[in-house]
Amino acid sequence: MDKLKEFKRILEGQTEIALATSVDEVPNVRIVNYYFNPDNNILYFATFKGNDKTKEIKANQNVAFTTIPHKENEHVKAKGIASKSKQTIFDLAACFVKKIPGYQDTIDYAGKSLIVYEIAFDTAIVTLDLSTIKTIKL
């Protein structure tokens, strides 16, 4: 198994992650759309300004995520640091729309109300099936 190739394939092919935050030892998880840039190994997601997610990340930038399996048990999971991005949803629009064509409607409707976050991480676990689970270092 080419771990890096499989990592990129899964992140490119899937459109959603379950994003976990934790504040005061109380966890929270939600599903968000994302775009992963393989050139800088940054995962980007957008959310509405001022919602619980933004407050939780402000209180604790440590997050975890897993892609949502669409083919058997294939998924990628990692832990990282989430921070507000210098990129806007308009800067990344072409990337999000290429990955999720219907996302243009979200950008048109709510783009000015969205803030982009990025997750920096250097290690991930790639699972292809129950017997093929590998950790990669980016």
Describe this structure in a few short sentences:
The chain has 138 residues and is α+β, with helices and mostly antiparallel strands.
Radius of gyration: 15 Å
Fraction in helix? 10-25%
Molecular shape: globular
Can you count the beta strands? 9
Mean pLDDT: 95
* Parts with pLDDT < 50 across at least 5 consecutive residues: none
How large a portion of the residues is in β-strands, by DSSP E?
Answer: 35-45%
Number of helical stretches of at least 4 residues: 4
Largest sheet descriptor: 9 strands, antiparallel
Question: What does it look like?
Answer:
The chain is an alpha+beta fold. It is 25% helix and 45% strand. It has helices at residues 3-13, 52-59, 93-99, 103-110, and strands at residues 16-23, 26-33, 35-37, 42-48, 62-67, 75-84, 114-120, 123-129, 132-137. Strands 1, 2, 3, 4, 5, 6, 7, 8 and 9 form a nine-stranded antiparallel β-sheet that branches. Strand 5 and strand 6 (75-84) form a beta hairpin. The protein is globular and about 45 Å long. The two termini are 16 Å apart.
Features:
138 residues; 9-stranded antiparallel β-sheet; 4 helices
Helices and strands in order, then pairings?
Layout: H1 3-13, E1 16-23, E2 26-33, E3 35-37, E4 42-48, H2 52-59, E5 62-67, E6 75-84, H3 93-99, H4 103-110, E7 114-120, E8 123-129, E9 132-137
Antiparallel strand pairs: 1-2, 1-5, 3-4, 4-7, 5-6, 6-7, 6-8, 8-9
